[in-house]
Amino acid sequence: MNKSTLILILEDSPADAELIERELRETKIPFTPRRVDSKEAFVNALTEFEPDVVLSDYSLPGFSGPEALRLLKERQIAAPFILVTGSLTDEVAAQCMKEGAHDYVLKTGLKRLPSAVLNALERAQTEREKLKAEAALHRSEELYRLITENTSDLICMLNWNGNYEYVSPSYKEVLGYDPQDLLGQSWFSLIHPEDWQEVDRKRTQSLTTGTPERVELRFKHREGSWKVFETVGNWIGDVQGGLQRAVLVSRDLTERKQAEKALRQSEEQLRQSQKLEAVGQLAGGVAHDFNNLLTVITGYSDILVRRLPENDPNRLGVEEIRRAAERASTLTRQLLAFSRKQVLQPKLFNLNTLVTDMGRMLRRLINEDIELVTKLTDDPTEINADPGQLEQVLMNLVVNARDALPDGGKITIETASLELDRNYADVHTSVQPGPYVMLAVSDNGVGMDAETRKHIFEPFFTTKEDGKGTGLGLSTVYGIVKQSGGNIWVYSEPSHGAVFKVYLPRVRPHKSPSTLEDDLQQAEAPGGNETILLIEDEPQIRRMAFELLGEQGYKILVASNGLEALKILEEDKTAVDLILTDVVMPEMNGRELVNRTALLRPDAKVLYMSGYTNDAIVRHGVLDSDTSFIQKPFSSYALACKVREVLDGGNRSSGLASL
């Protein structure tokens, strides 16, 4: 800070005010203080003193900090407001921050006051710069309107060869050229060479369609600088209808572009400042306590080293303790340096390697009563994405799973290499058929109902208590996955945990993805003429499975739930060769249904399907590990093969697990 900061201290205790000033002086912050202890004195000081920052106690005789904050807002004074108080509950603190306070500092922890003042002033400066940039943009837009109204755009007429036939007087004012000097010259002579190709493409397109085309380009000023314009062209025909000339109107966008760039930079700075402030509050608290412990360790280590003789065998051990404390202090500094902005660079890497490398860090994120298991495929998992972004995705999904396990449990991370075919894409409209790598994070926690699943990827949506979550974790995951060209799918039911599946395009160096459709057509799916009872509560999946199996020659009986399936079996005496059922359904799950159908169709084979992964469905205690099972989503070929495998296999298997 180059100048003395004017600090207004609203405090009825002179001793406390002196402690505040002393703490600020010890950190070498140049400032000029003024203490007031009443509403009248505070109002007068706002006008006479014009403070840069206000430090206020929460409660004073006949006045209070919140009242002072409201006075600041009513008078539209932009000075940051920081509460400095003896005690404050989290609820009250949160309310004060919501009403406009920049921070709060307890009198028992005044060591944090200087950094709070500096952070508040920096944030206020960033906000002022943003307002300045917004004002500049507003001024630019107003100028843009005035230019349009006064016809100060560049207007010219070109002949068929692209040479100037008419040039408006505004060329002189805007670009510095005398209109007479440009007549007969090529219009391209003023255009930046890098823009020639796009301009020529738009010209050809306009000739083909006969409609005006807009193009953004750069014109060279007479003094050598480049200015940005938006140009719209219209062709003029002769009496025979042939196109002979073009009229072009070019609007100067230079100032607007500069203002937009300044605004974007200001907003980015503000977002980065707010993020660093939030992370700093968390990391700062941890680092503060950690550094206190390290201070004790370091101090006593120094004392012991001084007391121990040079030849004492314990001296070496104490010195090692001292050096370890120094290394720990370095880790604390690294923690405080977290959230530095990084340039994101997609590259080819192996997803299995990323999951393995993150294993140790992920275990630190979860509680001791949660087991973390990884099940990685042996198939290729090469993808082209930003490893840092994918690390963020995996970390957020694991943290989300951890929060769904308040009483402990199990989190499983799985990878798979698979093909999503046209049938799957028809049901999931955002998916393109092709080779994919799947990253699945599952838990056996509290699960979610259908209404919650609808909103989980919306920003700021959270089911956690106030103060326990921002609601940005899963929306961040969704954005990263989409930007990486992938898709995310969630399967969950109340009390049955959740599975988040991320599908990212797989890179196959030795085989082009364009050959996928040929591969699928060449693979002949096995069929049959048996009767299958299909039970699925999701209408889209039910219709898809019905069509897939019907095309393979099977006779299909369809039910949307267990009760409906039992009714079909009781009323229709048709022999059923296979029961294909979802695992988790309302009213009656797949395990209960199969148990009840054992008396009605004891010879029917059973194939379960579920959105849970193979490992997760066993962990939930729903099925045994040797049960016939197919995991959603599945391709038509995979379903046909699995159905044929079960029909050709051994005896009926209910897959009942003992709970």
The whole-number mean of residue pLDDT values reads: 80
Tell me about the biggest sheet? 5 strands, parallel
CATH-defined fold name of the largest domain = Heat Shock Protein 90
User: Radius of gyration from the CA trace?
Assistant: 35 Å
Structural class: alpha/beta
Flag low-confidence runs: 333-344, 510-522, 655-659
Structural features, described:
The protein is α/β, with parallel strands linked by helices. It folds into 5 domains: 5-123, Rossmann fold, CATH 3.40.50; 151-252, Beta-Lactamase, CATH 3.30.450.20; 258-336, Signal transduction histidine kinase, dimerisation/phosphotransfer (DHp) domain (Helix Hairpins); 347-514, 2-Layer Sandwich (Heat Shock Protein 90); 524-647, Rossmann fold (3-Layer(aba) Sandwich). It has 22 helices and 24 strands. The strands form 6 sheets. The protein has a 5-stranded parallel β-sheet with strand order 2-1-3-6-7, sandwiched between helices. Strands 9-8-12-11-10 form a 5-stranded antiparallel β-sheet, sandwiched between helices. The chain is flat and about 95 Å long. The two termini are 67 Å apart. Residues 333-344, 510-522 and 655-659 have low confidence and may be disordered.
Keywords:
Rossmann fold; Beta-Lactamase; about 45% helix; about 650 residues; alpha/beta; Helix Hairpins; five-stranded antiparallel beta sheet; five-stranded parallel beta sheet; 22 helices; about 20% strand
